[in-house]
Amino acid sequence: MDISKEIAVPETLDHFQPNGFSPYHFFSSEEWAQFRADTPLTLTGDEVSRLRSLGDPIDLQEVRRIYLSLSRLLSSHVESSQLLFEQRNRFLNLSGAVKTPFVIGIAGSVAVGKSTTARVLKELLARWPSSPKVDLVTTDGFLFPNAVLQSKRMMDRKGFPESYDVAAVLRFLSAIKAGRPDVPAPRYSHLTYDVLPNEFTVIDRPDILIFEGINVLQSRDLPADGKIVPMVSDFFDFSIYIDADEDHIHDWYITRFMRLRQTAFRDPNSYFHRYASIGESEALEIAEGLWSKTNLRNLRRNILPTRPRADLILRKGVDHLIEAVALRKL
Ligand SMILES: Nc1ncnc2c1ncn2[C@@H]1O[C@H](COP(=O)(O)OP(=O)(O)O)[C@@H](O)[C@H]1O
Ligand SMILES: CC(C)(COP(=O)(O)O)[C@@H](O)C(=O)NCCC(=O)O
């Protein structure tokens, strides 16, 4: 498939792209796989099974085909930024400065498989000598609590830009990029479907921070007072968008919901517990409603429009496996 035709030229960049030019290099998965060069496979089949989310078929073959080249590319970006850091310290006559974490953003629709990609990358990147400490934070911890969303009648817009405490996201990333130790990241539970009050993951100056969530490439409306506000992605050193046809993502979301009925929803503490015991067709109707009223709307309105901001686009086919890659030119 020709990803260059699929990834439409964003209108706002039109004037930078005379006919036929694109800011991306495009590769088939076979071409991309060659870039792994002699990168060794450092994960076992069992580890990959442990890292994958429900319904994601990723296996060692996919890690070898796609993720080794990706970890090699990212690791060269990390090493270059470490080199630049040292050169700049010499230039500025600074001594004792400590490098701030290299931040990688991962964006894409609900149910596209961001968590699996983030977890596999975390493990692979930590095996490079330049980045032994890799942390992962998901943006769901920055959602407003359900009580707030309910009081604002926003539960059916969970995951929309307005459902996140973006100021808290910016404070968190500013602290990370200021090189602060022990920065707390709030946590979310998919089981209770809510943020976990007073539960934090403490991020203490990793070499790399992976920041994953549907909203990470979104901009903010310019405030009327003309004050300049940063975007979340201003803090990224590299960004990845995971892409797929919306029909495929729909199928993955519905299949996952129906499988969660047999697993996570059975837990009496699950927010969706009641859906474990209703009939199949009623459950399907609920899943279709959640998809079309919330997640598809969000994908079309707020997530897909951020795709042209990514440095790298991983395009999945019907089987969840990556079939094409677009890499922004330098
Ligand atoms: N209702 C749920 N109950 C339990 N786990 C869930 C539920 N919804 C999603 N998950 C899990 O949460 C993780 C994040 O899912 P999601 O936000 O859809 O992003 P993605 O599929 O792109 O990783 C996945 O590992 C998924 O399996
Ligand atoms: C929590 C989510 C918004 C994902 O958030 P993210 O981790 O990408 O910030 C999503 O999993 C979700 O709950 N969506 C709302 C509709 C639904 O229940 O599918």
Automatic annotation (TrEMBL):
<keyword id="KW-0808">Transferase</keyword>
<comment type="similarity">
    <text>Belongs to the prokaryotic pantothenate kinase family.</text>
</comment>
<keyword id="KW-0173">Coenzyme A biosynthesis</keyword>
<comment type="pathway">
    <text>Cofactor biosynthesis; coenzyme A biosynthesis; CoA from (R)-pantothenate: step 1/5.</text>
</comment>
<protein>
    <recommendedName>
        <fullName>Pantothenate kinase</fullName>
        <ecNumber>2.7.1.33</ecNumber>
    </recommendedName>
</protein>
<dbReference type="InterPro" id="IPR027417">
    <property type="entry name" value="P-loop_NTPase"/>
</dbReference>
<keyword id="KW-0418">Kinase</keyword>
<keyword id="KW-0547">Nucleotide-binding</keyword>
<keyword id="KW-0067">ATP-binding</keyword>
<dbReference type="GO" id="GO:0015937">
    <property type="term" value="P:coenzyme A biosynthetic process"/>
</dbReference>
<keyword id="KW-0963">Cytoplasm</keyword>
<dbReference type="InterPro" id="IPR004566">
    <property type="entry name" value="PanK"/>
</dbReference>
<feature type="domain" description="Phosphoribulokinase/uridine kinase">
    <location>
        <begin position="103"/>
        <end position="261"/>
    </location>
</feature>
<dbReference type="InterPro" id="IPR006083">
    <property type="entry name" value="PRK/URK"/>
</dbReference>
<dbReference type="Pfam" id="PF00485">
    <property type="entry name" value="PRK"/>
</dbReference>
<feature type="binding site">
    <location>
        <begin position="108"/>
        <end position="115"/>
    </location>
    <ligand>
        <name>ATP</name>
    </ligand>
</feature>
<dbReference type="GO" id="GO:0005524">
    <property type="term" value="F:ATP binding"/>
</dbReference>
<dbReference type="GO" id="GO:0005737">
    <property type="term" value="C:cytoplasm"/>
</dbReference>
<dbReference type="GO" id="GO:0004594">
    <property type="term" value="F:pantothenate kinase activity"/>
</dbReference>
